[in-house]
Amino acid sequence: HPRVTGNSATKVLGRTDSAELGESGYRFLDKDIKMHLTRLEPGSLIMSHPIYRQPVKIKFPRPAFKQGR
């Protein structure tokens, strides 16, 4: 809901379709970040918070049982 997302300072985004990125809830993102979100690999997220100048990419490690693959 727009009121919920509008009131949150920290936004965490995963891989998103380009059609969804055209909606008003994503207008705070630069064009380059939006393009990056469409190609984000599994295990990666983009975090946006007012304390940082640019969104930060977060990459989660592979689970221990999948390390060798």
Spell out the blueprint of helices and strands.
Layout: H1 2-7, E1 11-13, H2 18-21, H3 31-38, E2 44-48, E3 56-59
Antiparallel strand pairs: 1-2, 2-3
Offer a quick outline of the entry.
The protein is an alpha+beta fold. It is built from three helices and three strands. It is globular, with a radius of gyration of 14 Å.
Account of the protein in words:
The chain has 69 residues and is α+β, with helices and mostly antiparallel strands. It has one domain. It is 26% helix and 17% strand. It has a three-stranded antiparallel sheet with strand order 1-2-3, with no helix packed on it.
Features:
single chain, 69 residues, alpha+beta, 3-stranded antiparallel β-sheet
Give the N-to-C terminal Cα separation: 39 Å
Going across the major beta sheet, what is the strand order?
1-2-3
Fraction in beta strands: 15-25%
Helix fraction bin: 25-40%
Outline:
globular
